[in-house]
Specification:
The complex is a heterodimer of chains A (about 290) and B (about 375). With about 290 residues, chain A is an all-alpha fold. Chain A has one domain. Chain A has 12 helices and 2 strands. Chain A has a two-stranded antiparallel sheet with strand order 1-2. The termini of chain A are far apart. A 7-stranded mixed beta sheet of chain B has the order 7-6-8-9-10-13-14, sandwiched between helices. In chain B, strands 2-1-3-4-5 form a 5-stranded parallel beta sheet, with helices on both faces. In chain B, strands 11-12 form a two-stranded antiparallel ribbon. The chains are: A mainly alpha (about 290), B alpha/beta (about 375). At the A-B interface, helix 1, helix 4 and helix 10 of A face helix 2, strand 7, helix 7 and helix 8 of B.
Chain lengths: ~290, ~375
C-alpha cells in the first residue's frame, strides 16, 4: 500500500516535470541555451486557460487547446524578440535574456491578474479513487495520461515530421544543415513553438493540481532542468526518463530520509550525474563533453 | 559679463531649489516599508501596506504630527533576499526614513543589519523572535509563535484533540519557534519538514498517516494551507490541522472552497477571524480599498497599528530625537486602548496580544 502510493506520487511529479523537460531539452538541443523562461511560458499557458474557462465560462478543455496555441505563439515571440537578435552573442547573453523574459512574464501576469492564488472551476474536492493499494484523483490520472500522450506526440514530431527531422539536423550540426538548404531560423522557430506549446499544456495540468500564481512555473522548471541533465542534455527520451527518475527518487527518498531533504535529493542526483556521468543517462559522452 | 549673469542666476536658482527641497524634507516624516507586493506573500503584504496608508491619510488629514505630514515610501521586496536588501538600501539612502516597517521574518532578517546601522526602529510583523536579541532597534508587532503554539497545543492536549501529534512545517524560523512552544507542552511530536515554497505534501501526509499521527501542527502562508487542505481531502486521510493563525489558516477566500478537511481544524488568533471582517475598522478599510474584499483584514490592522504606534512615539519625542523615540517605543503601553488588533503595548520589544482558541465547524470559526 505504502510503496504503491509512493510510486504513484513519484509518477505524478515526474509527469509534471516531463512536460517542461521535453521543451527545455528540445530548445537546448537546437540553440545550446538554457531557457530559464520556459516555466513562465507554462505559467502563462495556465493563465490563458484560466481566462478562457473561468472568465469567459467556456469548458476547460477549450481553455487547454487555446493555451497550447497561445503557448506556441508566445514561444515564437520569445525566440523572435529575445533570442534571435542575440544569436551571435556569447551563450551567457542568451541566458541573461531568458532570465529577463522570465521576470517580465511573471510581472505582466501579476499586473493583470494580481498575486492571489487562482483556481480553475473543477468542482468540489473529493476523495481520490482507491485502486491497487493507492489513491489517485481524476485530475492526477489526467495529468499522467496527457503527459504520456504528449510524449508520444513529441516522438512523432521528431521522428516522423519533416520539421522534426530538420530540427535534429540543425541540433546535430547547424552549419552543415544550412549548407544542405535547411532554413535553420525557421526550424528554430518551429522548435520553440512546439516546446512552448508543450510547456503551456504542462502549465494547465500543473495548475489543475496545485492552482495558479505568477511564480508557479519556477520550481517545476528547475526540477525539469535537473531532469534534462540527468536524462542527457538534448535527448527527449532522456528528459522523460530523468523526470520520472527525479520524481520517483524524491518521493521514495523522503520515506527513508528526513522529509526536508526532498528538493536536496533532486539536486544531489544532479551533482552526482555532473561529476560521474555528465552526459546523463541516455546522452553520448562526446556531446556531454562538448556541451 | 553675460556668463557672469548666467552664473549668478544659476546659483540663485540652485539656492531657491535646494531651500525648497529642504523645506519639503522638514515638513515630512518619512517612513519606509519593504514587503512583498508581488509573488508569494503579497496576499498579506498588500493589506498591511494599505492599512499603513489608511492610518497615514487619517493622521495627515488631522494635521499630521506636530504640524509635519507623514510620508510612506513603499518598495516591493518580493519575499526575496536580494530584492529586499536593494529596496531597503534605496529607501535608507534616498529618503532617510525615521522608521522602517516590514512583514515577514525572512525580510526582517535581511533588513535588520541595515536599519540597525542607521539606528532607526524596524517594526516587523514576524511570528519569530530571533531578530530581537541581535538588533536593539527591532520591534515585533505580530502573533508570537512560541506563546501562540504553546497555547494551541495546551488546549488540544487538555481537550483530547489528538492521540499522536505531528508537525508539518516549512523550515523557517516561525515554525521552529512554534515547535519550540509546542514542545513545552507536548514532548513527543513527529516532525515532517519541507522546503518553503513546496506545495506537494502527498508523501509527507502519507508518512504522517503511517506513523499514526492524527493531528498536524503548522504555521503556513495561504498557498501552503490551500494545498494542505486540498491534498488531505483528496487522500481522504483523517488528520486534523492545528494551525496558526486562524485568520490566515482558513481565510475568507479559502473558506468558500468548503473542503471536508476543514472540519476539526483548531487554531489560535489574537483577533476573532470573522468578527474582524465585520469590525468598524474593516468597514473603513473596505471603503478605502473596495478591491480588497477578500483580503486578510488582520494585516491591514497590523499595518494601521504600526503607524499609530510610531505616531505616538514621534508625537512624544519629536522626530529628531532618536533615543527618545527608541525609549518611547520600548515603554509603549497603548493606554488609549485604540488599537485595531487589541495590543497592550510592548514588553521586551514584543507586542503583547491576547490569544484565543478557535475551532472550525460547519458554521465557521467558533471561539472555544
Amino acid at each position: 500500500m505504502v510503496f504503491q502510493q509512493l510510486v504513484v506520487n513519484g509518477i505524478i511529479a515526474g509527469s509534471e516535470y516531463a512536460l517542461l523537460a521535453i521543451g527545455l531539452t528540445l530548445i537546448f538541443g537546437i540553440l545550446r541555451i538554457i531557457h530559464f523562461a520556459h516555466g513562465e511560458v507554462a505559467m502563462v499557458g495556465a493563465y490563458v486557460a484560466f481566462v478562457v474557462s473561468v472568465s469567459l465560462g467556456l469548458p476547460l478543455p477549450v481553455g487547454f487547446v487555446v493555451a497550447i496555441c497561445f503557448g506556441a505563439l508566445l514561444g515564437m515571440a520569445v525566440n523572435r524578440f529575445a533570442f534571435k537578435p542575440l544569436r551571435k552573442q556569447h551563450v551567457w547573453i542568451g541566458l541573461i535574456a531568458a532570465i529577463a523574459v522570465s521576470i517580465l512574464l511573471q510581472n505582466i501576469i501579476a499586473l493583470f491578474f494580481g498575486n492571489e492564488i487562482k483556481t480553475y472551476n473543477l468542482g468540489p474536492v473529493e476523495k481520490g479513487m482507491e485502486m491497487f493499494g493507492f489513491i489517485i484523483t481524476k485530475t492526477q490520472v489526467l495529468i499522467i495520461v496527457v503527459a504520456v500522450a504528449l510524449m508520444i506526440l513529441t516522438w512523432f514530431f521528431i521522428k516522423k515530421t519533416k520539421t522534426g527531422q530538420q530540427a535534429r539536423a540543425v541540433a546535430d550540426n547547424r552549419h552543415l544543415a544550412e549548407s544542405l538548404g535547411i532554413d535553420s531560423e525557421k526550424v528554430i522557430a518551429s522548435t520553440f513553438a512546439f516546446g512552448s506549446a508543450l510547456a503551456a499544456a504542462g502549465g494547465v495540468l500543473i495548475a489543475m493540481e496545485t492552482n495558479l500564481d505568477p511564480m508557479m512555473g519556477l520550481m517545476p522548471n528547475i526540477k525539469a532542468f535537473a531532469a534534462v541533465i540527468v536524462g542527457g542534455v538534448g535527448s527527449v527520451p532522456g528528459a522523460i526518463l530523468g523526470s520520472y527518475f527525479i520524481g520517483l527518487t524524491e518521493n521514495i527518498g523522503i520515506w527513508y530520509l528526513p522529509s526536508g531533504y526532498k528538493d536536496a535529493i533532486a539536486f544531489f542526483i544532479l551533482i552526482v550525474f555532473l561529476l560521474f556521468r555528465p552526459q546523463g543517462i541516455l546522452g553520448k559522452k562526446k556531446e556531454g563533453i562538448e556541451q | 559679463m553675460k556668463n557672469t549673469k548666467i552664473l549668478i542666476f544659476t546659483a540663485l536658482l540652485s539656492v531657491v531649489l535646494l531651500s525648497g527641497c529642504s523645506q519639503i524634507q522638514n515638513d515630512e516624516i518619512e517612513i519606509g516599508v519593504v514587503t512583498p507586493l508581488t509573488g508569494n506573500g503579497a496576499t498579506l503584504g498588500k493589506p498591511m501596506v494599505e492599512g499603513m496608508e489608511l492610518a497615514i491619510s487619517e493622521i495627515n488629514s488631522q494635521g499630521g504630527i506636530n504640524g509635519k505630514q507623514l510620508k510612506l515610501h513603499i518598495e516591493d521586496g518580493k519575499l526575496e533576499g536580494q530584492a529586499t536588501t536593494n529596496a531597503t538600501q534605496f529607501i535608507l539612502n534616498v529618503h532617510n526614513p525615521k522608521a522602517m516597517v516590514t512583514l515577514y521574518h525572512v525580510d526582517a532578517e535581511v533588513m535588520s543589519p541595515l536599519t540597525k546601522q542607521e539606528k532607526i526602529p524596524l517594526l516587523h510583523a514576524s511570528f519569530a523572535r530571533s531578530i530581537l536579541p541581535k538588533d536593539p532597534y527591532a520591534f515585533k508587532i505580530n502573533f508570537d509563535a512560541v506563546d501562540g503554539c504553546k497555547q494551541l497545543v495546551e488546549y488540544a492536549k487538555e481537550n483530547n484533540k489528538y492521540r499522536k501529534l505531528g508537525a508539518l512545517m516549512s523550515r523557517v524560523a516561525y515554525n521552529e519557534y512554534c515547535l519550540q512552544g509546542a514542545k513545552e507542552v507536548e514532548s513527543s511530536i513527529e516532525e515532517y519538514w519541507y522546503v518553503f515554497g513546496n506545495t506537494d505534501f502527498k508523501t509527507l501526509l502519507l508518512k504522517a498517516k503511517e506513523d499514526g499521527v492524527d493531528a498536524l501542527l503548522t504555521v503556513g502562508i495561504d498557498f501552503e494551507y490551500i494545498e494542505m487542505y486540498k491534498q488531505m481531502a483528496e487522500l481522504g486521510y483523517d488528520i486534523d490541522l492545528f494551525c496558526a493563525t486562524a485568520s490566515e489558516c482558513i481565510n475568507p477566500g479559502l473558506e468558500s472552497k468548503n473542503y471536508p478537511s476543514f472540519q476539526g481544524t483548531v487554531s489560535v488568533d489574537f483577533v476573532h477571524p470573522r468578527e474582524m471582517d465585520k469590525s468598524a475598522f474593516a468597514q473603513k478599510y473596505y471603503a478605502a480599498y473596495p478591491n480588497s474584499k477578500n483580503a486578510v483584514v488582520t494585516y491591514a490592522g497590523i499595518g494601521y497599528d504600526a503607524i499609530t504606534i510610531l505616531k505616538d512615539a514621534f508625537t512624544e519625542c519629536g522626530v529628531a530625537d532618536q533615543e527618545c523615540v527608541q525609549s518611547a517605543l520600548e515603554s509603549y503601553k497603548n493606554e488609549k486602548r485604540d488599537s485595531v488588533i487589541g495590543t497592550l503595548g510592548f514588553e521586551d520589544r514584543v507586542l503583547k496580544l491576547d490569544y484565543d482558541i478557535y475551532e472550525f465547524n460547519e458554521n465557521g470559526w467558533q471561539l472555544k
